[in-house]
Design brief:
β5 and β6 (86-92) form a beta hairpin. The chain is an alpha+beta fold. The chain is built from 8 helices and 8 strands; from the N terminus they run αββββββββααααααα. The chain has 2 domains: 3-110, Immunoglobulin-like (Sandwich), CATH 2.60.40; 117-232, no CATH class. α2 (112-132) runs antiparallel to α4 (148-176), α4 packs antiparallel against α5 (181-198) and α4 runs parallel beside α6 (205-213).
Length: 233
């Protein structure tokens, strides 16, 4: 066979493979004028044995309120979008993601896992807002003449209800996403929150429920297995 045609054939195959590679496309807009001229970054959260690092995957300049990124994707990953002093969680996955940022409100949509993530975050934030309003409600009840015991009974019950709702929402979110990066990421968040609260590696009834019902592929995840092995030890 003519060597020239062999090389040409290989080149065509390589170009075809490259054109078929999975790609991500990010199309973003922001109404925050002070971000013009700054650089937006996509960074992957990496947890090592002794350090925590954010590895930059992609970046672009914000011009006239717009920023765009595109690239090849080997695997779906959890990342954060850095814009000025703010950062937002998102999933880097094949397809086009639309991002809109106005004031401190971010809207990320267009791909399945990002839709799941932000539906969940919106629901969780709504419950957190109600929880954070409890001190204001307590002050108002004092002014309205409620006794300390009445306030304790009413708001104590409301606090427990909201905590239960948040726990139930988070637990179901992880269970619904056992087989993708969302489930692993939020499970580890719960684990690290428990570690930071108690001062040592441990679990909670919520973590135990999620882990005990998890499929083997979830339990074999490197970071999940590492954390749970430290608990056992």
């Amino acid at each position: 066979m003519n060597r020239k045609y062999t090389i040409l054939g290989l080149s065509i195959v390589m170009l075809t493979c490259m054109s078929c590679a999975e790609k991500y496309v990010i199309e973003g807009t922001t109404s925050q004028y002070f971000l013009d001229g700054t650089v937006a970054y996509i960074k992957q959260f990496e947890i090592g044995s002794d350090d925590v690092d954010f590895r930059a995957i992609d970046s672009c300049e914000v011009l006239h309120g717009k920023f765009d990124m595109t690239g090849a994707l080997d695997s779906v990953m959890m990342v954060r979008l850095y814009m000025g002093t703010d950062n937002f969680p998102m999933v880097l996955e094949p397809g086009k993601v639309s991002i809109s940022i106005a004031d401190n409100i971010v809207k990320i949509e267009g791909t399945e896992l990002n839709e799941r993530l932000y539906t969940f975050l919106t629901q969780r934030d709504s419950l957190k807002i109600m929880y954070d309003e409890l001190p204001n409600r307590e002050s108002k009840m004092y002014l309205d003449g409620y006794s300390q015991q009445e306030i304790f009974n009413i708001l104590g019950e409301e606090e427990l209800r909201l905590q239960h709702e948040v726990d139930r929402l988070e637990t179901q979110f992880v269970k619904d996403n056992y087989y993708n990066v969302l489930g692993v990421t939020w499970f580890l968040r719960l684990c690290y929150e428990a570690r930071d609260f108690y001062g040592f590696v441990t679990t909670t009834p919520q973590i135990d429920e999620i882990y005990m019902q998890a499929p083997d592929v979830f339990k074999r995840n490197k970071m999940v297995a590492s954390y749970m092995s430290q608990v056992d030890n």
